[in-house]
């Protein structure tokens, strides 16, 4: 059986002895026919079809014609790219318009309250530390009383009889640079000072001159910068170019958070809308920058978007139903006092959406890649088979991701849980308190979104990759330098 049409080049094959007859030319339509000149039929590489065309001649038509590429995945068809673009281009345009409309001019100014984080601060150095008798520096001049079995009584006893520290601190920045002041460190204080230590000092201009400065924290810039540098080096060494792109995407995410999301919320924009626009921008930039502009990434983007919509709907329902105000500690109370127009419950929901985004990216990209690789390994598998195989992979991912998310939130709230344990509160009483209820709602809503993202993204990827309709004959991918001319004639073999 001979054919009159030849492909642009034959698929790569290992060297064979003349006359070897192990070829499979399956099928009369999409199989590889074999004739005296070794011509091949116009079918695609794998040529599986009805009917056997086993031949025993010596031409190239009898060679094994299966071509399984181990290079990058073949690009999807033009038709499928148009479908994906029809979904994502309007979405990306809407995100861009949202950024333009909601973009703030910077955080609005306000009068500093001098409370908590809203204090003026300067950098300083501890220049000298002397031991002094706590009783000598006790302002009241009297020995404190109280049962030593209580925390207050034990602290008072140590302050009366123990050794305190008198630290001399030099201001290194600001208009009072070079000015020194002293501070007494009690023996039971959690933060002890030592000579040469870098500290952060709070400044209160309305206080008496000798009380205007006080140590508020330790300067941790160097160890944090060193740790960040180690993280960057490890990421680049292991991830190479992907690691570099991941670091750039991380920097862009922080820029969007710092210069768009936070100032826009402070200006009075709806926190939920700001979070949706900001999270969408982070998602588009991070995914395409890290994983490339491809159909795989686009499917992961759509799966992430659908999961974020589900998280937003559930969060809006249950935060309102559980009457969570979002104003549960000193920090949120200070924010509400400074900016009463901010919707604190909306701020809570915005935090849920942004907090879930990072783990969602991991799940959706992994599931999409798994389905694509399954299709590459077995192109004849339909979308149902792809979905079933992909969801089996996803179930393992679900178990680990949900456990990770729950433990992350539990670790962050560990001091609070410890307080409830000390108070011997019942589980119901602990869960009903707004502080813990916020974390429960945050954890469960995020976990529901993560779990739902697995079947959603897997089904979407299976449908997309199985519905691909190439516009022309598939061209197998072969390593560079492997294409060589084929000599015509019966019994010839190509040279390597």
Structural notes for this entry:
The chain has 496 residues and is of the alpha+beta class. It has 11 helices and 5 strands; from the N terminus they run αβαββββααααααααα. A hairpin with an 8-residue loop joins strand 2 (163-171) and strand 3. Helix 7 (344-377) runs antiparallel to helix 8 (383-412). It is elongated and about 85 Å long. The two termini are 27 Å apart.
Q: Helical proportion?
A: 40-55%
Q: Tell me the span between the first and last alpha carbons.
A: 27 Å
Biggest sheet: strands, sense, closure? 5 strands, antiparallel
Low-confidence stretches: 1-74, 471-496
Query: C-alpha Rg, in Å?
Result: 33 Å
Rounded mean pLDDT is 74
From N to C, what is the helix and strand string? HEHEEEEHHHHHHHHH
Lateral strand order in the biggest sheet: 3-2-1-4-5
Total count of helical runs of at least 4 residues: 11
Strand content: 5-15%
């Amino acid at each position: 059986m001979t054919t009159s049409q030849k492909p642009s080049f034959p698929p790569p094959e290992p060297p064979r002895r003349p006359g070897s007859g192990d070829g499979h030319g399956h099928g009369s339509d999409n199989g590889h026919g074999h004739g005296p000149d070794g011509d091949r039929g116009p079918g695609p590489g794998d040529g599986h079809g009805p009917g056997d065309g086993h031949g025993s001649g010596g031409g190239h038509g009898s060679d094994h014609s299966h071509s399984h590429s181990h290079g990058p995945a073949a690009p999807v068809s033009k038709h499928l790219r148009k479908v994906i673009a029809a979904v994502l281009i309007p979405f990306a345009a809407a995100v861009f318009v949202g950024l333009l409309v909601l973009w703030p001019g910077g955080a609005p100014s306000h009068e500093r309250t001098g409370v908590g984080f809203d204090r003026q601060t300067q950098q300083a150095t501890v220049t000298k530390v002397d031991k002094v008798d706590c009783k000598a520096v006790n302002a009241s001049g009297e020995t404190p009383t109280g049962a030593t079995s209580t925390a207050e009584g034990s602290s008072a006893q140590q302050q009366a009889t123990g050794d305190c520290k008198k630290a001399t601190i030099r201001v290194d920045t600001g208009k009072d640079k070079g000015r020194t002041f002293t501070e007494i460190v009690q023996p039971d204080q959690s933060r002890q000072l030592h000579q040469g230590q870098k500290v952060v000092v709070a400044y209160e201009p309305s206080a008496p001159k000798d009380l205007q400065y006080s140590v508020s924290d330790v300067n941790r810039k160097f160890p944090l910068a060193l740790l960040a540098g180690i993280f960057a080096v490890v990421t680049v060494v292991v991830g190479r170019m992907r690691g570099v792109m991941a670091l750039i995407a991380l920097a862009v995410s922080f820029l969007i958070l710092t210069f768009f999301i936070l100032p826009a919320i402070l200006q009075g924009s709806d926190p939920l809308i700001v979070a949706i626009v900001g999270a969408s921008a982070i998602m588009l930039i991070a995914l395409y920058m890290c994983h490339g502009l491809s159909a795989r990434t686009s499917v992961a983007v759509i799966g992430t978007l659908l999961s974020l919509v589900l998280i937003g709907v559930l969060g809006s329902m249950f935060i309102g139903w559980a009457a969570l105000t979002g104003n549960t500690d000193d920090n949120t109370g200070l924010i509400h006092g400074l900016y009463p127009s901010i919707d604190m419950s909306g701020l809570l929901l915005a935090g849920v959406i942004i907090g879930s985004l990072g783990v969602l990216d991991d799940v959706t990209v992994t599931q999409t890649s798994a389905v694509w690789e399954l299709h590459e390994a077995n192109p004849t598998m339909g979308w149902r088979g792809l979905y079933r195989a992909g969801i089996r992979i996803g179930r393992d991912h679900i178990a680990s991701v949900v456990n990770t998310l729950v433990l992350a939130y539990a670790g962050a709230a560990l001091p609070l849980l410890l307080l409830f344990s000390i108070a011997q509160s019942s589980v119901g009483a602990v869960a009903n308190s707004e502080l813990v209820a916020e974390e429960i709602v945050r954890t469960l809503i995020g976990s529901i979104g993560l779990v739902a993202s697995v079947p959603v993204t897997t089904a979407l990827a299976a449908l997309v990759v199985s519905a691909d309709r190439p516009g022309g004959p598939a061209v197998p991918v072969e390593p560079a330098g492997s294409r060589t001319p084929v000599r015509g004639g019966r019994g010839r073999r190509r040279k390597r």
